[in-house]
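job 3f2a | input accepted
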Amino acid sequence: MAKPKGNIAALDEQLIEKTVDRRIEFEGRVFKVEVKNVELFDGSVSNREIVLHNGGATILALDDDMNVYLVRQFRSPYEKVLLEAPAGKLEKGEDPKACAIRELKEETGMEAKTVTDLGELYATPGYCSEIIHLYLAQDLSFGEGNPDDGEFLQLVKMPLTEALEMVDNNEISDAKTMVALLKTARRVGV
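job 3f2a | predicted structure (190 res):
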């Protein structure tokens, strides 16, 4: 598909939806569900169901020997154990980098002298407001983890190249982990 030609701001005007009204249908501990009625560019009206989420942060630890540290954790929506980079949800107003550093310590016991911002990920932009902030942890020191109550994890150390192969083979399917691994590989020249 060709790149749009012309004034991008003018082209965007045809895509922007105007909110007519909104209501909260559900409010839980982790997210809210909002239903919005929107007016489209052509004047028609539609509705949007949106999961409102404070967002999260993930951090990929990389040691001097090019090993990454991931956690295995059961994920109820999929009824299986996934291999993921340490991550956690943001509290309202929390600094994403501080969240990532906290999660690294809690889930792995590691601390990092160098934490690099790898950008943001919109995991499911069709219906969820969650933004996941991605970080790379280097210059690591190791200690004891302290997971949250009810959080059971297994720490896994593997070469970055092996983790990338697992992404290619769909053995790592968690989006935030895949993107963090791929961005890290580019950053370090793998």
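job 3f2a | The chain has two domains: 8-53, 56-188.
job 3f2a | closed
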